[in-house]
Amino acid sequence: MNLKSERRGIHVDQSELLCKKGCGYYGNPAWQGFCSKCWREEYHKARQKQIQEDWELAERLQREEEEAYASSQSSQGAQSLTFSKFEEKKTNEKTRKVTTVKKFFTASSRAGAKKAELQEAKAPSPAIHRQASIETDRVSKEFIEFIRTYQKPGQDIYKQCKLFLDTMSHKRDLSIEEQSECAQDFYQNVADRLQTRWKVPPEKVEKAMDEVEKYIMTRQYKYVFCPETTDDEKKDLAVQKRIRALHWVTPQMLCVPVSEEIPEVSDMVVKAITDIIEMDSKRVPRDKLACITKCSKHIFNAIKITKNEPASADDFLPTLIYIVLKGNPPRLQSNIQYITRFCNPSRLMTGEDGYYFTNLCCAVAFIEKLDAQSLNLSQEDFDRFMSGQTSPKKQESDSFSPDVCLGVKQMCKSLDLLSQLNERQERIVSEAKKLEKDLIDWTDGITKEVEDIVEKYPLEIKAKSQALAAIDSENVENDKLPPPLQPQVYAG
Question: pTM of the entire structure?
Fold first, then answer.
């Protein structure tokens, strides 16, 4: 029997809301009718199938390129080489590569491993036609040295990474979002293999994933950082222009609890600016996050020294905004997008690195939407400051050298204060004169209106009429009136 609900007057067949897989739980239309558990299983299966298809495609393309490369070499001067000999050479080449890879994980000396890595690096690869940079070679050697400590899991990691790089070399035409999705799936797949198949402890998995990210993104950096198919460069220029226009913003306007008069605090501010600028020189998302973390810790120390107490989140964000405005880091939006797209999600979504990165994103968003109300300024003053017509008076001149004594600085502060008071007095006098003129104009206007009304409606003054005599007065003109009453006395 189908159960029906009449809530809000709508008839719903609850049997149609059950999970499509038949587990007995209710499904969700947003998950194509599956429940959350079944949806995760189906999604994981689909992802594994897609990854397997990508690997098969990469292997097939690799074989085709090797065959084409071999045929082109044979046509140039090795035409006498028979197909059987070519197959034998190809088999020997594969055996040599396998032996070379195995040597990386044997208990041989470190010098032998480095020599094998250098030989492999010098070998031409038909899949990637570019000369590896010095930094890429160094990272590759460090990655080989690291995975040797993992034995068989390390061999699996190395194989997965090489396969992923070969696959990505054939996906350059994909959008940056699709390449980001492939990288995130790769991270998740490698972490799952280490945990489920090789039973590696969580702390070693995290360390291995950091090295995998470093190796992969160092080699992919050239192709995925600020690609031409996105508008990252346009956003970088817009943010830089915006920060330059806000050069007049002072710490007092942002309520920054940092006093740069303290030498130790001033050093912390300089270090924080250096770290946020240095972020652009790093290739690995984890290293860029480390620069943000170091910058944030310097900010917390500067606030703590100034206030003589631990800093709070309400103090940290305004100070970070001030550091970004003062430092104007290069390619800020590109770095943020690069970290978001290709950083290991476990590091980005948890821990202090993720917290500081989120605050940096909030600071950039605040700068992009900064207005007069945010700084407690009038719109007129904000527009004048933004246009460069004038700038707010600073409490301290920027031309001071660190050797200037506090007395000279205090004197300059007093001069600035007197200058501000003088401008305020002039403004008050000007307003008083304007008020006086308005009062005179108002008085003249009222007088003129009264005169116009009197002229339009003149007053007519009549002659004074004769006053009437009293009844009991001795008036000779009123003889006909009876005589006045006389008082009479009666004897009783």
Answer: 0.57
